[in-house]
Amino acid sequence: MKSVALFTHRACVLHDPGAGHPECPDRLRAVIAALDHPDFVPLLREEAPRATVEQLQLVHPSAYIETILALAPPPGDVLALDSDTFVNEGSVEAALRAAGGVIAGVDAVMEGWADSAFAAVRPPGHHAEADHAMGFCLFASVAVAAQHARTRWGCKRVAVVDFDVHHGNGTQHLFQADKNLFYASSHQAPCYPGTGAGSERGVGNVVNMPLSPGSGSAQFRESWEYIGLPALADFRPDLLLISAGFDGHRADPLAQLCLDTLDFGWITDRLLAVADHSCDGRVVSALEGGYDLAALAASAALHVRRLMRL
Fold first, then answer.
1. Could you tell me if 167 and 96 are in contact, meaning their C-beta atoms sit under 8 angstroms apart?
2. What are the residues facing 258 on neighbouring strands?
3. By the 8 A CB rule, do 118 and 6 touch?
4. Domain layout of the chain by residue ranges
5. Residue 21: burial class (beta carbons within 10 Å; 0-12, 13-18, 19+)
6. What's the CA gap between 259 and 188, in Å, rounded?
7. How far apart, in Å, are the Cα atoms of 21 and each of 15, 60, 83, 167, 218?
8. How far is Cα 274 from Cα 24, in angstroms, rounded to an integer?
9. Are strands 181-188 and 239-244 parallel, antiparallel or unpaired?
10. pLDDT, tens digit (0-9, with 9 covering 90-100), for 130-178
11. Which of 200, 222, 289, 292 is in the most buried spot, having the most CB atoms within 10 Å?
């Protein structure tokens, strides 16, 4: 068994985009309830700290950070930032804890007191662009953590792997001009946000694997086995970050891929094998999407079991 640090915070449940919104507080409640199973007693449970302004500035302009931090909807109200992204009085604190949880996961594995880490946080982050929120996301948490690994820990080559059903446009745009950052994504296409074509390759550091609606386990696994995983292995990262979205599950209401819970265990195992070879198993995973509560809970729990090597 490997030691896995779990970072979360009750503030992440207080972010509430409003009645009927799919990115609801019950998502995180479902994940945390699943991780209360006796199998997860060995988890190193930690409180996600707030990301600092200086850390957020690694990818976001100061003016944008100031705009988000100044958001203060009255209690009980929600404010629309775009047609999908809404905030309430708890959202800013949740976003700071979400980014801070992924950063703390990087610190945990680089300090060596955990073999890997999972940030059970929300709101998600991979759609956030440098200067604007979108797709339920305020701060690009995983991208911030990747840059933190470089500045704080001297990691020269950092990889992000994203198996959320939606392409992580924000992460790709923040990485695509830097050959020492790597981004690989499998995602449904066509689907929101409309980016992620196979021809989008950055400076040779971006690998997109679009999957047609209705694609299932075979197409998902073949894409990773023959395209994504070999490219990741060739990159040889010093640290691997995972944008762990579970909305490719066949039960999810927001897209039309047909993955099973076991597919998320499979991709986790394969990513760990690459990480074991290239970066002493240093892996930090962060919750992104997943909107069917039962499928999300089961898939996230299996993902964490695999991180623990159970």
1. no
2. 216
3. yes
4. 4-307
5. middle
6. 11
7. 11, 26, 11, 20, 31
8. 33
9. unpaired
10. 999 999 999 999 999 999 999 999 999 999 999 999 999 999 999 999 9
11. 289
Please give the class, per CATH, of domain 4-307.
alpha beta
Kindly report, residue by residue over 89-114, the tens digit of the pLDDT: 999 999 999 999 999 999 999 999 99
Instruction: Catalytic residue, from 127, 167, 173, 187: name it.
Output: 127
Report if pTM > 0.70. yes
Yes or no: say if 287 and 31 are a contact pair by the CB < 8 Å rule: yes
Angle between helices 293-307 and 261-278 (to 10 degrees): 30
How do residues 35-48 score in pLDDT, each as one tens digit? 999 999 999 999 99
**3-state secondary structure string across the chain:** CCCEEEEECCHHHHCCCCCCCCCCHHHHHHHHHHCCCHHHCCCEEEECCCCCHHHHCCCCCHHHHHHHHCCCCCCCCCEECCCCCEECCCHHHHHHHHHHHHHHHHHHHHHCCCCEEEECCCCCCCCCCCCCCECCECCCHHHHHHHHHHHHHCCCCEEEEECCCCCCHHHHHHHCCCCCEEEEEEEECCCCCCCCCCCCCCCCCEEEEEECCCCEHHHHHHHHHHHHHHHHHHHCCCEEEEEECCCCECCCCCCCCEECHHHHHHHHHHHHHHHHHHCCCCEEEEECCCCCHHHHHHHHHHHHHHHCCC
127 is catalytic: yes
Q: Which residues pair with 47 in a beta bridge?
A: 8
Convert the pLDDT of each residue in 193-218 to its tens digit.
Answer: 999 999 999 999 999 999 999 999 99
Residue 127 binned pLDDT confidence (cut-offs 50, 70, 90): very high
